[in-house]
Amino acid sequence: MPQTFHRDRTTWLAYLSLAFYGYYLNILGPITPFLKTELQLTYTVSSFHFTAFAMGILMVGLIGHLLIQYIGQSRALWLGLFGMSLSAVILSFGTSPIITIGASFLMGLIGSLILAIVPAALSDQHGEARAVALSEANIVASLFATSAPLLVGWFAHSIGNWHWALGIMAPMSILMFMIFGKESSSVATDINVEAAPTDRGLPALYWIYWVALMLGVSVEFCMVFWSANYLEQALGMIKADAAQAVSLFLFAMILGRILGGRLVQQFSTRGVVTTAILIAAMGFITFWSATNTILALSGLFITGLGVANLYPLILSLAISTARGKTVQAGARATLASGTAILALPLVLGRLADSVGIRLAFAVILLLLISIFLLHQFAPGISLAQRSVSQ
Hints:
The chain has one domain: Growth Hormone, Chain: A (Up-down Bundle), CATH 1.20.1250. It is built from 15 helices and no strands. It has helices at residues 9-38, 43-71, 73-93, 97-126, 130-158, 164-167, 172-180, 204-235, 239-263, 269-289, 293-307, 310-320, 326-355, 357-360, 362-389. Helix 1 (9-38) packs parallel to helix 5, helix 2 runs antiparallel to helix 13 and helix 8 runs antiparallel to helix 12 (310-320).
């Protein structure tokens, strides 16, 4: 690790804020089978929870910087944290799809202020060590995300009420404010002085990575949102057990990101990304082709190992091309995440209604192939840009 890398209280605030966001983002998949049963929803209507959340992310990516500049980054961060807590409580008590889908939208809209702030903040603070900071932030986020399906399954088994998994984390925003409230004023203050995205656009190479980032997020959240349903419907697992099994994927992402954080200190980020894509593809083929639970769960774990580093490392590659426009690059990366969560889980849900969930999962393999091709194509764009500039 670079000697200049230092984790101060502001860094830890950024890490924990992203972790809080990750917990609630990743809880939507495990609770979907329960919502589908309780509210008597189709796969397509169930997927509207993901769609609504993603629409909120997209709105933040488009206009969130205006709100952040108006109220300041510190207030925007706490608005995101407190707003996500309140939205989760509303979702927990929702008795109709209108309420639960609306609460999901609010979680995405208000909570994604966190997603817009944290990557740019860490990139500005740690500079060339941004890949390490982003990897570590996503490791902490993965720890929280892994606990989400475990708590859903545990509460469903122990007290017969999965709703507690939504509410138990809500007070964390208050606890964080009590501990880190004074440090929040120093989080990524550069956003208020960086030019708005009306000047020169981001380079073409950035947009190549942007598309790859969008597809990588699509793979991650298709797996998180639908793997519990897949295990239940295609392999006959009990609903609560299928929900808990998602933790295998998320736990593998923790291990993958720990390994990825070490590997990028010894090898090129591009090389690590290529390896990650191949591991994810191998794991997914195992998961998708399995006819017994043990083999499927093994494939799910291997898939998580590979998928783990797609988001943080492709994001690091994208921001490194931004020529200092980290906030603009971060905001556009938020759009990539929102677009992915908006489109692909909905597509997979509609395909599952039409052709069955097993065949619908072929979409994920196509996504991984596309990421690989884009990643291999990126160096050619970089060379072409250098030739033009010369």
